[in-house]
Amino acid sequence: MTCHNCGGELENLITDLPFKTDCDSIVIIKGLPVLQCTNCGEYVIEDTVMEKVDHILSGVDKATELEVLSYVA
Ligand SMILES: [Zn+2]
Question: Ligand 1 center to residue 60 CA distance, Å?
């Protein structure tokens, strides 16, 4: 798999990323496995990972302004 942005090499990386769930709501997911381009730094989140992220985000209280969650529950 190569970077869709520049065609560079992607490497596996565990990181923390913020996701906006609503206009005022941000969820930071820690320990997220992503692919990062070694050339331009672009992140790619695989479909299976994104599905789990969607599931995690769907369980978050919309009234929460900021929540920090772990990818590995
Ligand atoms: Zn790239």
Answer: 32
Per the structure, the complete domain to which residue 56 belongs is given by 10-70
Instruction: For residue range 24-58, list pLDDT tens digits in order.
Output: 899 999 999 999 999 999 999 999 999 999 999 99
2 within some domain: no
CA 52–ligand 1 middle distance (angstroms): 24
Q: What gap in Å lies between CA 10 and CA 27, rounded to an integer?
A: 25
The domain that holds 20 is classified in CATH as 3.10.20
Domain assignment present for residue 52? The answer is yes
Whole-number Å distance, alpha carbon 65 to ligand 1 midpoint, is 32
Q: Model pTM greater than 0.85?
A: no
